[in-house]
Design goal:
The complex is a heterodimer of chains A (187) and B (198).
Chain A lengths: L1 H18 L5 E8 L4 E2 L7 E4 L2 E4 L8 E7 L11 E12 L13 E7 L4 E5 L2 E3 L7 E5 L15 E12 L3 E12 L6
Antiparallel strand pairs in A: 1-12, 2-5, 3-4, 4-12, 5-11, 6-10, 6-12, 7-8, 7-11, 9-10
Chain B lengths: L4 H21 L14 H13 L9 H16 L6 E10 L2 E8 L2 H13 L11 E3 L3 E2 L5 E8 L6 H12 L30
Antiparallel strand pairs in B: 1-2, 2-5, 3-5, 4-5
């Protein structure tokens, strides 16, 4: 009987401790490409569908447009733990693979803090290069060596900006993976 | 009905475990004491002090880092002048380059920063994170900002290669600085028809 009592107490203690462990927190958010907006509202150059958005083909085949894709960010002001990592992936569709043109839509991921500080994370990797569906990766850990990012709860807005997107190209969707913690924990 | 000691202990243990689990489900945040949000000064120090403390740039890349940071900045925002002054020049360290900029007014600061957001300027290809500190209001309506062009670890071959490709690539001068602010100390930017076109 004593053994049973000890087992019950040990089990409850283990569950209680694991529940309050000081862990790094991951948040992964997927966003549909139709969230992206053109920075030319007058001409409405974007077409929306269930597969995201597409830049309409007009009379000028070499035209480019500027696109802003909003990124959701939790407004947990109480989360003052430092951001350890932000990784954004952006999935393109219908990118031309012939014609000798280099696909360089000039994208950066941007966020602003409650103090009006601004942070820009550059493109760090391209998956599936040379195909119609490349994936762009913006990884804070690669583009930063030891300089801390602001705390999670100080971010009040964020977006992906691409200012050189050719006509006929689309965005299927994008994801944001954030990880924050109070100590030097693996993210 | 008489409950045995063992079943009572299990029952109490179960309730305790359930309570603990529910308590930990209330929030996603790690169980650490909450601290207040950093002020603008603290936020800037977090980045600027860490960059300054990182030491000198790797010796064999120092000239390339200094030159390409200064070039990219000037070809994005223009050279130092009456509207935008770079008082201390470009100072590069192992973790990045710092540029302290004084803008003529709020409107000029906003118009200048919008260039990075809205146009494919050379700084858009900088291979590290770019930080723009919270603006500080000075006497006479001037605004001071510190830009930090952070660097990846250049000791790693991949990062060094990426940086060298940026530094040796052709940088188009996109530094047109249209006076979108009609007069000093205006708070709003006026649209300029040729903005973004050299």
């Amino acid at each position: 009987m004593r053994r049973l009592i000890l087992c019950a107490l040990a089990l409850s203690f283990a569950i209680a401790v694991s529940g309050s462990a000081n862990a790094a927190v991951h948040r992964l958010t997927n966003i549909h490409g139709s969230s992206c907006q053109s920075q030319d509202p007058q001409n409405q150059p974007l077409l929306y569908s269930d597969t995201g958005m597409l830049v309409k083909r007009g009379s000028d085949p070499s035209a480019v447009v500027s696109v802003a894709c909003p990124v959701s960010w939790s407004q947990d002001a109480s989360l003052t733990q430092s951001l350890q990592k932000v990784v954004v992936t952006l999935d393109w569709t219908s990118v031309p693979v012939s014609g000798g043109q280099t696909f360089n839509p000039s994208c950066m991921f941007y966020f602003i803090t409650n103090n009006s500080g601004e942070i820009w994370i550059p493109l760090t990797q391209v998956n599936n290069p040379g195909t119609a569906t490349p994936e762009f990766v913006f990884n804070s850990q690669i583009s930063l060596s030891g300089t801390p990012l602001p705390a999670y709860g100080t971010v009040i807005g964020s977006a992906l900006y691409c200012n050189n997107v050719p006509v006929g190209v689309g965005i299927f969707g994008y994801t944001i993976d954030t990880c924050f913690s109070s100590g030097v924990l693996s993210c | 009905m008489k409950r045995s000691w063992s079943s009572s202990a299990l029952y109490v243990g179960f309730l305790f475990a359930l309570g603990s689990s529910l308590a930990s489900c209330k929030t996603l945040e790690p169980d650490v004491p909450l601290t207040p949000r950093p002020t603008a000064v603290q936020e800037k120090s977090l980045v600027v002090d860490t960059v300054k403390a990182s030491g000198p740039v790797v010796q064999d890349l120092k000239r390339l880092v200094d030159r390409s940071a200064a070039d990219a900045f000037a070809k994005t925002f223009g050279n130092s002048g009456a509207e935008v002054e770079y008082s201390g020049g470009v100072n590069c360290f192992k973790n990045g380059c710092l540029i302290e900029v004084t803008y003529r007014d709020v409107c000029t600061e906003k118009a200048s920063t919008d260039r990075l957001r809205n146009f494919p300027v050379p700084l858009r290809s900088w291979p590290g994170i770019i930080y723009h500190s919270p603006p500080v209001m000075l006497a006479g309506g001037k605004v001071q900002v510190t830009w930090a062009l952070l660097l990846p670890d250049l000791a790693a071959d991949d990062n060094r290669g990426r940086f060298q490709r940026f530094a040796e690539g052709k940088m188009i001068d996109a530094s047109i600085r249209p006076d979108v602010c009609s007069s000093p100390n205006t708070g709003t930017a006026q649209p300029a028809p040729n903005q973004g076109v050299k």
